[in-house]
From TrEMBL:
PROSITE patterns: ABC_TRANSPORTER_1, ABC_TRANSPORTER_2. InterPro entries: AAA+_ATPase, ABC_transporter-like_ATP-bd, ABC_transporter-like_CS, P-loop_NTPase. Keywords: ATP-binding, Nucleotide-binding, Transport. GO terms for molecular function: ATP binding. Residues 2-228 form the ABC transporter domain. This is ABC-2 type transport system ATP-binding protein. It comes from Nocardioides massiliensis. Belongs to the ABC transporter superfamily. It comes from the Bacteria. SUPFAM superfamilies: P-loop containing nucleoside triphosphate hydrolases (SSF52540).
Length: 304
């Protein structure tokens, strides 16, 4: 369990994280979603005890991170896959982590195997690793202490499609065994496919949170017909909303009601399905557009 309570971080005039509160529960993957510069990394760094908050508190497994007696055995953290000594080999990095946590050396080989780094790759220096290999090593470091909680900042960065699938399966398996996973991403799809719960952050503030199903369900239906005008009229006469766009009608009715209404009015339907992503995608696109516009147009140091 990870708890963030009214967490705030200011850097001079910039409020990077603004009164952020949420909980990441055991047995679930919590996706922390936001555009670049939204405050994800700063929040996760505060949770992991690397950045002191201006105000607010965080708890991991009931304690402040810095009060955990052997943090690596309880919490696996991957914040910056390159933040390791570049001259050390992957194997050395894992051996040092194992020794620090009082783990047997056999754990190193087990982790290399788990993240599919070959013995040859494990003996290369970190400076010669690709970003994807660094991420795999970072995951190995995070998991080596067999923790209950995982905190990962953009773990899919640099991974190829097979690597992304592997990562998803790994996180799913970890949560299914009762672990708590908190991962950040600036990509909606990445969060959508793996997360059970989603927290959306924009300009340092939480703008939405809930289960994935709650956030993605919008109760709207997408209907196509050769006669869109007749379809829209039939829906409106039944007291339903009907917005014509892109050669289809989107209505606030569920698919069964929309289909029955069209049928009763004698309108042939050529496609009928729940409307996609809806609210969350729309909101996220707006957030992304706003943050990109701010980056380009806002004078330095001004907050949106
Ligand atoms: N050490 C710092 N000093 C000053 N400002 C900072 C510092 N760290 C972060 N910020 C600012 O805080 C805001 C949030 O940054 P943060 O890195 O947490 O965002 P993010 O959501 O992780 O973005 P990204 O997806 O690009 O990694 C940004 O405006 C950033 O410029």
């Amino acid at each position: 369990m990870i708890i963030l309570e009214s967490l705030t971080k200011r850097y001079g005039a910039v409020t990077a994280v603004d009164d952020v509160s949420f909980t990441a529960a055991p047995g679930r993957v919590t996706g922390f979603l936001g555009p670049n510069g939204a405050g994800k990394s700063t929040s996760l760094r505060m949770v992991a005890g690397l950045t002191p908050p201006t105000s607010g508190t965080t708890r991991v497994l009931g304690r402040r991170f810095t009060d955990l007696p052997n943090p690596g055995r309880e919490v696996g953290v991957l914040l910056d896959a390159s933040a390791q000594h570049a001259g050390r080999t992957g194997r050395e990095i894992l051996r040092i982590a194992a020794a620090t946590m009082g783990l047997p050396r056999t754990r190193v080989d087990a982790m290399l195997d788990l993240v599919s780094l070959t013995p040859k790759e494990a003996d290369r220096r970190l400076r010669d690793y690709s970003l994807g290999m660094r991420q795999r090593l970072g995951i190995a470091s995070a998991l080596i202490g067999d923790p209950e909680v995982l905190i990962l900042d953009e773990p899919a960065n640099g991974l190829d499609p097979a690597g992304i699938r592997w990562m998803r399966d790994l996180l799913r398996g970890f949560a299914d065994q009762g672990g708590t996973v908190l991962l950040s991403s600036h990509l909606l799809h990445e969060i959508e496919v793996v997360a059970d719960d989603i927290v959306v952050i924009g300009n340092g503030r939480i703008v939405a949170s809930g289960t994935k199903d709650e956030l993605l369900a919008n109760g709207r239906t997408f209907v196509r017909s050769d006669d869109l005008a007749a379809l829209a009229t039939a829906l409106e006469r039944a007291g339903l909303e009907a917005v014509v766009s892109d050669g289809a009608v989107v209505t606030d009715a569920d698919p069964a009601t929309a289909g029955r209404t069209a049928h009763a009015a004698g309108v042939a339907v050529t496609e009928l399905r729940a409307a996609d992503g809806g609210g969350l995608e729309e909101m996220f696109l707006q957030l992304t557009a706003v943050s990109q516009r701010d980056q380009h147009l806002a004078p330095e140091g001004t907050a949106a």
